[in-house]
Design a protein that fits this description.
With about 120 residues, this protein is mainly beta. The protein contains no helices and 11 strands. About 0% of the residues lie in helices and about 50% in strands.
């Protein structure tokens, strides 16, 4: 069982930056593949970024690829998502997720953190 708690969301002006954090419980965090997703009002949840358990392989949605960085600190049981050059369309609730397999569905989800980008 893994519990995930996101933080770092808030209100930011367009063009600004944010770093989201996701703290995980459990001693096996380093074995989990992690992902970030987001859901905007009236829209379906969408993939943002993912990182393998070792941190050596990352993946990004095209919409954030050139201005985002996902990273992890296994010693701190934390995964991060840094986003730059934020746009109003980045406004959403951002969720952290974990899975044992590098592919397929995610097994655990956090409660989410709100990111609002003002124009």
């Amino acid at each position: 069982q893994v519990q995930l708690v996101e933080s770092g969301g808030g209100l930011v002006q367009a063009g600004g930056s944010l770093r989201l954090s996701c703290a995980a419980s459990g001693r096996t965090f380093s074995t989990y593949n992690m992902g970030w997703f987001r859901q905007a009002p009236g829209k379906e949840r969408e993939f943002v970024a993912a990182i393998r358990w070792s941190g050596g392989i990352t993946d990004y949605a095209d919409s954030v690829k050139d201005r985002s960085t996902i990273s992890r600190d296994n010693a701190k049981n934390t995964v991060y998502l840094e986003m730059n050059s934020l746009k109003p369309e980045d406004t959403a609730v951002y969720y952290c997720a974990a899975r044992m397999s590098p592919i397929g569905k995610y097994d655990y989800w956090g409660q989410g953190t709100q990111v609002t980008v003002s124009s």
